Amino acid sequence: MTTDTEGSHRRTGAAPGQDGEEPALTVGELAARAGVTVRTVRFYGTRGLLPPPALGPRRVGRYGGEHLARLALIEELQRQGMTLAAIERYLSRLPADLTVRELALQRAVVASWAPDTVETVPRAELERRAGRELSEEDLRRLAAVGVAEPDGDAFRVDTGLLRLGVELLDVPLAQETVRAARAVLVEHSRAAARALSQLLRDAVAERDARDVRSLSAHMHPLVVQALLTSFQRSLREELREWLDEQ
Questions:
Q1: pLDDT at residue 145 above 60?
Q2: Which of 4, 26, 123, 166 has the fewest other C-beta atoms within 10 Å?
Q3: 73-84-113 Cα angle (round to 5)
Q4: Residue 64: what are its φ and ψ, rounded to 5°?
């Protein structure tokens, strides 16, 4: 979504960096990485969709990973057909202190509302969407988790998982561990989906097929958000117990 409305959103003092990282991008660099215009970035700032940048030397705004992650989330919300007002409402309900990875999870939830989307793109386009250059090792890791698989001179990309896959590149885990974690998540999420699907089938067994499709469309994003929230809480509790044991 682009707009002709001008504006900028500034504040004095330094804005916090993303996950402990200092903001490093100018507004032009941020726009280029996100695939939008500078005008759009500034407009989003005036509407509160993006937090203000940190002010560097000569009061030049500096942006970081949080801004990139929010722009990616806004892009995904647009792809789902949300209006600017609806996007504002959606973002206003999110906690203000979400990390880059938590924003990426939110984007994955939104992407899951739509049918599975796999696109074949050249490497340059894959890197543009990833927001970074990808080494051969990066490409191998993305292929190992089924995010971007080689297809001749191009790559078959699961667009709903790309941002999360890129985030995983910076996690210090071996490919085998990431692959095993993916298998665990797929296995258990499939079991949860099967159980929930059976509950819904039982609840609407006597209703018209059109009612069933309508209910499914409304329930899908709610169920995904509920699963994400419950999983995050469960994982946090497990990690806390493990750290207490240590």
A1: yes
A2: 4
A3: 45
A4: -135, -160
What is the rounded distance in angstroms from the CA atom of residue 134 to the CA atom of residue 179?
Answer: 19
Tokens representing residue 100 in the block: 């880059």
Return the pLDDT at 156: 93
| Helix, strand, coil % over all residues of the chain, rounded to 5 | 60, 10, 30
Higher local confidence (pLDDT), 196 or 103 = 103
Q: What is the pTM of this model?
A: 0.49
DSSP 8-class letter at 29: H
Q: What is the CA radius of gyration of the chain?
A: 20
**Among all chains, which residue has been given the structure tokens 């999870």?**
105
Helix (H, G, I), strand (E, B) or coil at 18: strand
Spatial CA neighbour of 76 closest among 98, 91, 95: 91
The pLDDT, as a whole number, for residue 14 is 34
Reduced to 3 states (helix: H, G, I; strand: E, B; else coil), residue 156 is strand
Distance CA 66, CA 16 (A): 10
Helix (H, G, I), strand (E, B) or coil at 42: helix
List the chain domain ranges: 27-98, 118-168, 176-245
246: three-class secondary structure by DSSP: coil
Q: Is 130 helix (H, G, I), strand (E, B) or coil?
A: helix
Q: In whole angstroms, give the CA distance from residue 169 to residue 196.
A: 32
Residue of higher predicted confidence among 111 and 24: 24
Residue 81 dihedral angles phi and psi, to the nearest 5°: 90, 15
What fold, for 27-98?
Multidrug-efflux Transporter Regulator; Chain: A; Domain 2 (1.10.1660)
Q: Which of 77, 52, 46 is nearest to 67 (CA)?
A: 52
